[in-house]
Amino acid sequence: MTTAPRKTSQKAPRSRAREFALQALYQHLVGRQSAESIDAFTRGLSGFHKADSVHYDALLHGCIKEAEELDALIKPLLDRKLEELSPIEHAVMWIGAYEFLHAPDVPWRVVLNECIELAKEFGGTDGHKYVNGVLNGLAPKLRPLEVEADRASGKARP
């Protein structure tokens, strides 16, 4: 059974926050703009008022502040140089790694699925498969107890 992408009107506030954070992180990666100028611009975009602004703030400012640490986590799982990643894939992986580390209230499988959906919606043709592989490799390192519990119960593949 496949599901069509959710219409924007049906998206949860946190999903919207991830979308706005992705757009903002893309601007940071491509244009090297400051978090403050990107934030001011993004908050003016249509539909931002429906996003979880606290989660958006955490993602935007946290990913930029911890960029080196997030990259260090991601790099060992890549089959190419970090510089060769598309900015969309790079930003989605930052979001996933950041949420694994700092959003324990969001189950790891939700983080993974949300990031795959972001990559499908905004990234290249098969970018979501690459994001899936990297974040699936990262999850057991950053959320070992949760991943193991899901594997033991059959909710996740071993």
TrEMBL record:
Residues 16-138 form the NusB/RsmB/TIM44 domain. Gene3D superfamilies: NusB-like (1.10.940.10). One of its GO terms (cellular component) is cytosol. One of its GO terms (molecular function) is RNA binding. InterPro entries: NusB-like_sf, NusB_fam, NusB_RsmB_TIM44. GO terms for biological process: DNA-templated transcription termination; transcription antitermination. It comes from the Bacteria. Keywords: RNA-binding, Transcription, Transcription antitermination, Transcription regulation. The keyword Phosphoprotein does not apply. NCBIfam families: nusB. HAMAP family: NusB. Belongs to the NusB family. This is Transcription antitermination protein NusB. The gene is nusB.
